[in-house]
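Predict the 3D structure for this chain.
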Amino acid sequence: ITAPSLKEAQNLENIKKEIRNRGYNTPLVADIHFTPNAAELAARLVEKVRVNPGNYADKKKFEHIDYTDLGYEAELERIRLRFLPLVKICKEYGTAMRIGTNHGSLSDRILSRYGDTPLGMVESAMEFLRICREENYHNIVLSMKASNPQVMVEAYRMLVQQMQMNDMDYPLHLGVTEAGDGEDGRIKSAAGIGTLLEDGLGDTIRVSLTEDPEFEIPVAKMLVDRYATRGNHEPIEPLSENTVLPYSPYAYSRRITTAVSNIGGTNVPRVIADFSNREEITAASLFAVGYHYSVPLDKWNLTDQACDFIYAGDKTVAFEIPGTLGIIYNSESWKKLTAPVRSYPLFCGNEFFESEKTAADLNFVAADLHTLTPEFISKLKTCSNVVLLLDTFHAHGMAEQRRAFIELLLHDCKVPVIIKRNYTGITEEQLQLFAATDMPALLLDGFGEGVWIKQQDISSPAKVNSLGFGILQATRTRISKTEYISCPSCGRTLFDLQETTNNIRKRTEHLKGVKIGIMGCIVNGPGEMADADYGYVGTGVGKITLYKGKEVVKRNIPEADAVEALVELIREHGDWVEVGT
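Done. Predicted structure below.
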């Protein structure tokens, strides 16, 4: 329950009393930001308080401050004196505390010292944590939330590294904040939370959707329940004791690969649609994956989410395909083609090296970790026309595939790799969350030049294609649509977030690559929108302030006029295009 001022904190006593009178023993958490006196009162009433180091004792004006070491030490002492009373109250009352850093509300002090970085997020929390430890107070949970899954994942990993170095073992609360709604919100949440769960990190989670709050819990449970039976899987061979990890989990760097046709190198990751199980592949079939054929004009029209390749297996594509599309056949079927225009073979492992006929420009070679022997990798390194199709059937498939990428790095093999995952026997909702966990966990480490989601009778080709592009969008490895950074409803929200988000989406969803932040209040607004192009923030009842980047451009616009004012702002800065152009 958010308690933004002393008045709301006082009312926590009434809330708790009534809930207990009705027989509920659910612990209560008070979410505090700018008001230490509210936190100090709440800590006497509820089971846990959440404080944000970025705005509990600091101000945020986006000002750069040059500190001397002595000056910075003085600031730390000021923070200690501000924070110490709360620590003592929590210790006295047995109240737990979440030290919850938000990427969007790092203080000017932290930003000036460490920059807008995961390291800055970690240090912001560690400053408070050190004060707690000086007081021998350890009833603590830590969080490192961000709207960008890349930043969020790096910050949590770095926090764990810092705790291990300092002999700490505090539990972690995971969350992607301002994830948005619908498919985008779920994919982005899974990309961040799921990646860390795959790493074995996290003790509690919160899924934040711009929807009615009861829709968040099923998503969270579905993410967590996947690990109930994960324990006793086949071992994955560890690195030898003296091997140095050939990439950094704390800073994104895309794996260097050689371009093969339009895959790898500096190309965006590619999306492969699986049509091998269809009875027939026709021109109309391609509508689901972004290709619309106009009979009167005899012309293909492409959407921004038109897939790059179709896997036909042994099916025949007997019509003239769009010029941007490639067809992948099983190798034996490909060899029978008389004129294989933009058609490419798929070989299994060593089958490629043993085949008398291969494609001159592009061949797909399927392999898994067990196939990637030193001898096999040496052969790959001599080929300039091969793309590896990395498959897995391991219970912990992400970890096995990550291990395969590490093997390629250790052997300096620059072959491009498509990440392929196979899903059966699950629901459409599980497919969405599982794929949005497994693939981003690799993409966020800089691994993978494309994605292939193979599903059996789970979802339509259109939804699977949208899922593939959504995964690339969430990891910011390929932008194909407008991105909305919008928060869930809470007690600080100053307008109807769902209705407003829908209104803004209706007007702007055709603006490919534009990032729009939609924030219910000022707490995280300007900061969480730090990498957004435009911002729409509630700053008073019925009042909206518009941002261009971090800068305020229009203050206190009446809510009824604010969406149109946002559109005009986008026009003024040259980012507006008309629908259909």
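The CA atoms of residues 252 and 445 lie 6 Å apart.
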